[in-house]
């Protein structure tokens, strides 16, 4: 991976979207129902779409198993880790090598795969080959193994002989590969481990250890010229020539014991909520480094205690309390005193995005007010430290951040995106902050900027123009004009362009089609993909046929339309009565109802449908994909609008003659768990069972960056902060069904205090919840054995109670 393109900030961050699509019952598909102000109309089913490919066929079991559910990743890690070689000839990614089912003995390993040109021989399939690489189009290349997992591990260990399947290191993650980067001559790879760095020569298949030791390292990258490696260790930024040698500290004076005053190092908030990849940025000429100084000395700390008694602290700013004070400095690689950038007062502000301009002299810095209603874009001269304001975005509710800033090579223009008209669109500005043009228009949103082809005056972006349920790649001229859709298959596309815009990798999925990658190349100077069904592939993922997912549109009682989906059991009989599981997400930044693969959540819903349940979901107001106006009703009152919309969803269920409305359960995780808790205390709707994973019980104990964005100041708007269950202890006596809660004991987002607060309140009124404690696990349950326990517990809970 060459140094990330300095002209385009693009952090994928966490994808919270989870489920989506397919068929519909005779009753709902043949009529329009109006009841209690709720109107439903059928939307296109995935089965009804002629251009939606069917999953590649291979011998499969008849039914899903919980082993398959727990083994399914929650995102397409191949695209998350995909990196292009500097010449644009190869796209490589990390491929997880799974241990045997039910095994907790092996630490995860990664091999590195790549798309190679058709002229290159395809590698023989090794034992750690990916489980699925089906074709989507006539591909420009084919996936081939680049570096086997055993060689990756050997390189990071510093041994010449590979240790097959980790050997005596089976329980040790010291040599776990985290990331990799391409060399500037695209002939080698920098392998970035948890505690070591290694240089791997692709041609000779040999390696040399660059950095080792017992201390963790992070945020490693290569300078743009490919000559220097930088990384964080022991709270210092270190530099090391690619040729080898002894690392040196960038800063002349440092105090590693000063953990709360960080230089070039991310704290918990900036890494986990603001989603920065690192807290420093190389200049395009590799001569200087811009970095954040994060002062956490006045910020609240939270302690986490593991099962072995060890403890650690994270910086966790509470609502109404102190937040990090952040400043920007420029440091010459050659040494000397750093230059501070003058942004005015930065107390009670965030600096969420930073990027170098192509001239290696100027820096773009975004400054977000604490309550997130004002966003300023500054343009700073890094030699003098002076900055000027380019533009300001304002919103009465809150501003959603993006990663769509792009500076043109001429240094005179830049691209910017915003939601000032509800839907996010692209705008062209000059370097003085004057708007020159609006490139995209309409009641749909630009999901993110993918690439800019300056030589041909084209901008490529992903958007919801076809449908909020889908994501497609589009192009538009920098000079304006009509947009053109590039990807054609109905569903969701995620793309990554090669340097030079000669080709791109497309990861495609639907609600019943796991992600499939293809390498697409330019044809006659125009990017075009020939749409066709995927070819049969012997490596296709061995999943049984999945149930169709029907998308429907419900008109809520106040007139707003909401998207929903239904999954019915196999051999569905409209003359029978079925129990229902209402799956909840419902939070800002989330979109459950999408024609996209949802990972393990997709498979678990399919598994429950297979067991005889109808699975139903509604994207209430407050969720993403429909524009900012659709999100705004949750402002200052979390759970209120969401639960009203979910009640309308329940009202729709009562119109379905095959639904047993005495056997309806709710399920959700995180924000969905927060809503599931509210559902179980929601007197108008008789939910019989509720499963809440990592539920927020008190927003006053959540982090300030997230909670204040939607609830504002906790003193001025105290009523909204009491919207969580902790603020309504009198409601606990209304628990009317069976409640189960799953909680990771080391969850850094939703702390254990939430569970303890709820359980204590329930005991006070003579009630209790069924609790599954996931010891030493965090918010995202990543290891397969624990996931198997979790999904088994969820399944058994609903089987017992519905």
Number of helices: 13
Please count the beta strands (DSSP E, at least 2 residues each).
45
Q: Approximately what portion of the residues adopt beta-strand conformation?
A: 25-35%
N- and C-termini, Cα separation:
51 Å
How are the strands of the largest sheet arranged? Answer: 1-2-38-39-41-40-42-43-44-45
What name does CATH use for the topology of the domain at 26-47 and 544-801? Rossmann fold
Q: Please summarize the sheet with the most strands.
A: 10 strands, mixed
Note poorly predicted spans.
1-59, 118-139, 163-171, 528-540
The SS-based structural class is alpha+beta
User: Percentage of helical residues?
Assistant: 10-25%
């Amino acid at each position: 991976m060459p140094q990330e393109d300095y002209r385009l900030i693009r952090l994928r961050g966490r994808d919270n979207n989870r489920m989506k699509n397919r068929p519909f019952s005779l009753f709902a598909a043949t009529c329009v129902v109006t009841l209690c102000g709720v109107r439903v109309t059928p939307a296109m089913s995935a089965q009804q779409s002629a251009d939606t490919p069917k999953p590649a066929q291979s011998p499969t079991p008849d039914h899903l198993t919980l082993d398959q559910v727990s083994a399914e990743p929650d995102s397409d890690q191949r695209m998350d880790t995909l990196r292009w070689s500097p010449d644009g000839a190869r796209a490589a990614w990390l491929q997880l090598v799974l241990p045997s089912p039910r095994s907790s003995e092996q630490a995860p390993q990664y091999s590195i795969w790549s798309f190679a040109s058709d002229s290159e021989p395809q590698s023989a399939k090794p034992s750690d080959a990916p489980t699925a690489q089906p074709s989507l189009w006539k591909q420009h290349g084919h996936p081939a193994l680049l570096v086997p997992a055993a060689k990756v591990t050997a390189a990071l260990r510093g041994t010449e002989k590979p240790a097959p399947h980790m050997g005596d290191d089976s329980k040790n993650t010291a040599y776990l590969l985290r990331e990799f980067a391409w060399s500037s001559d695209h002939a080698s790879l920098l392998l970035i481990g948890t505690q070591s760095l290694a240089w791997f020569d692709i041609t000779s298949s040999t390696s040399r250890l660059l950095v080792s030791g017992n201390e963790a390292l992070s945020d490693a990258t290569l300078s743009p010229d490919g000559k220097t490696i930088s990384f964080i260790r022991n709270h210092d930024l270190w530099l090391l020539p690619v040729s080898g040698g002894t690392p040196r500290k960038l800063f002349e004076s440092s105090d590693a014991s000063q953990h709360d005053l960080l230089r070039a190092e991310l704290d918990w908030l900036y890494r986990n909520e603001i989603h920065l990849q690192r807290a420093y940025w190389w200049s395009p000429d590799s001569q200087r480094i811009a970095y954040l100084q994060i002062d956490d000395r006045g910020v609240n700390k939270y302690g986490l205690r593991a099962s072995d008694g060890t403890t650690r602290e994270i910086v966790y700013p509470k609502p109404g309390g102190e937040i990090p004070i952040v400043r920007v400095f420029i440091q010459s690689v050659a040494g000397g005193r750093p230059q501070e950038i003058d942004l005015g007062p930065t107390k009670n502000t965030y600096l969420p995005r930073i990027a170098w301009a192509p001239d290696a002299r100027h820096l773009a810095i975004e400054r977000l007010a604490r309550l997130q209603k004002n966003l300023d874009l500054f343009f700073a001269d890094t030699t003098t430290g002076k900055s000027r304001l380019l533009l300001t975005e304002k919103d009465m509710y809150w501003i959603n951040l993006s990663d769509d800033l792009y500076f043109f090579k001429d240094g005179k223009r830049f691209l910017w995106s915003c939601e000032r008209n509800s839907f996010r669109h692209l705008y062209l500005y000059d370097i003085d902050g004057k708007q020159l043009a609006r490139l995209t228009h309409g009641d749909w949103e630009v999901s993110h900027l993918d690439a800019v082809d300056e030589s041909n005056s084209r901008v490529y972006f992903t958007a919801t123009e076809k449908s909020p349920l889908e994501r497609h790649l589009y192009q538009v001229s920098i000079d304006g004009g009509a947009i053109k859709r590039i990807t054609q298959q109905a569903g969701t596309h995620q793309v990554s362009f090669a340097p030079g815009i000669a080709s791109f990798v497309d990861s495609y999925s639907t609600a019943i089609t796991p992600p499939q990658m293809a390498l697409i190349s330019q044809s006659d100077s125009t990017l075009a993909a020939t749409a066709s069904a995927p070819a049969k592939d012997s490596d296709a993922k061995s999943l049984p046929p999945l149930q169709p997912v029907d998308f429907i549109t419900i008109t809520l009682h106040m007139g707003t339309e909401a998207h929903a989906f239904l999954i019915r059991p196999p051999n569905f009989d409209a003359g029978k009565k079925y129990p229902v599981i209402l799956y909840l997400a419902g939070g800002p930044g989330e979109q459950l109802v999408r024609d996209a693969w949802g990972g393990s959540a997709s498979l678990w819903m399919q598994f429950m449908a297979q067991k005889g349940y109808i699975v139903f979901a509604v994207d209430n107001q407050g969720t993403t994909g429909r524009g900012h106006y659709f999100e705004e009703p949750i402002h200052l009152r979390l759970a209120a609008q969401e639960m009203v919309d979910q009640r309308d969803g329940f009202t729709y269920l009562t119109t379905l003659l095959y639904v047993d409305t005495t056997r309806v359960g709710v399920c959700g995780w995180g924000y969905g768990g927060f809503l599931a808790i509210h559902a179980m205390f929601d007197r108008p709707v008789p939910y019989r069972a509720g499963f809440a994973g990592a539920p927020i019980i008190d927003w006053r104990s959540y982090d300030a960056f997230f909670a204040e964005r939607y609830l504002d100041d906790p003193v001025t708007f105290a009523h909204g902060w009491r919207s969580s269950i902790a603020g309504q202890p009198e409601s606990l006596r209304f628990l009317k069904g069976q409640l189960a809660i799953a909680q990771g004991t080391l969850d850094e987002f939703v702390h254990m205090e939430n569970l303890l607060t709820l359980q204590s309140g329930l005991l006070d009124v003579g009630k209790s919840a069924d609790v599954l404690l996931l010891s030493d696990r965090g918010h995202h349950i990543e290891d397969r054995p624990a996931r198997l326990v979790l999904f088994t517990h969820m399944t058994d809970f609903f089987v017992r109670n519905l």
